Amino acid sequence: MIGSVTCECVIYDVQSLKQKRSVLKSIISRLKQRLNIAVSETGYQNLWQRAEISIVTVASDKVVVEKELNKALAMIDSTPEIERTITNFEWF
């Protein structure tokens, strides 16, 4: 089972693309280190207060995939610099 989640995020306290990249790099590296997922910024690369993050994981059971994706979303939500807005799940 392959699970994918794409979430749009708003980063309020940044004034440049450099600050945005710093916030996203921190979040993405924490996600990769702590969870069994692949994660990348996939949209809005040239806008400094918006971001789209895609997360993918693979497991033999849908429940395991869903738990891992929800852990990743919880980590994003626990980061005070970023707010998750639109979230879409896909299953393959």
TrEMBL record:
UniProt xrefs under PANTHER family: DUF503 DOMAIN-CONTAINING PROTEIN, HYPOTHETICAL CYTOSOLIC PROTEIN
Transmembrane regions: none
Pfam families reported in the protein's UniProt record: DUF503
Taxonomic path: Bacteria, Bacillati, Bacillota, Bacilli, Bacillales
The protein's name: DUF503 domain-containing protein
